[in-house]
């Protein structure tokens, strides 16, 4: 790594996992820790980039030398990303965004006395923030997405990644397997990065920081 090789590049990174409110005290969430996104932000800043970190419920401390924008729900994240994307050279969507949110956010706490033994929740689709950012891409902007999949078969995993890279319209897609013990909370990661044609341009495994450095090498 050459310190300064990303000098002055404006990089917007989302990290963490969204929380979709159900009522004033509850939410639907996911197990993303934010570690990979935070490692990207820290490494990019160390290499001279001007970093905006859009952080959703991080379980790790945010790095220094980045501009932090705190969000919670997918709707918050979308607003913050759209604002920050305006003058960004690079956009990296490392956050785990809820695909669905409760159709209704109750003003008061849901009480079991009122709902009985079963409670049925109606969920509605959230917009695909990454696809929106890729569709609104400015000339020269680079958009990078992530795909966390539980598929264990490497070929099928690659197929899912290729399909996603095409569907989302991003320039690069970072593909990694997640499970109960892999990916999200872990200190390590193993990824394959696909370009917009679905070709593998990076295979990297190791600490989330070393994986971050490899991904950032694409931007030099
Ligand atoms: O479709 P899937 O959730 O697997 O796609 C993952 C990628 O898309 C990640 O980069 C994630 O940040 C992004 N995403 C998004 N908006 C959503 C769902 C996912 O931007 N509603």
From TrEMBL:
Spans annotated as Phosphopantothenate--cysteine ligase: 11-220
Molecular function, one GO term: phosphopantothenoylcysteine decarboxylase activity
Pathway noted in the entry: Cofactor biosynthesis; coenzyme A biosynthesis; CoA from (R)-pantothenate: step 2/5; Cofactor biosynthesis; coenzyme A biosynthesis; CoA from (R)-pantothenate: step 3/5
Keywords, sorted A to Z: Decarboxylase, Flavoprotein, FMN, Ligase, Lyase, Magnesium, Metal-binding, Multifunctional enzyme
Cofactor: Mg(2+); FMN
Reaction(s) the record says it catalyses: N-[(R)-4-phosphopantothenoyl]-L-cysteine + H(+) = (R)-4'-phosphopantetheine + CO2; (R)-4'-phosphopantothenate + L-cysteine + CTP = N-[(R)-4-phosphopantothenoyl]-L-cysteine + CMP + diphosphate + H(+)
Domain of life per record: Bacteria
The protein, known as: Coenzyme A biosynthesis bifunctional protein CoaBC
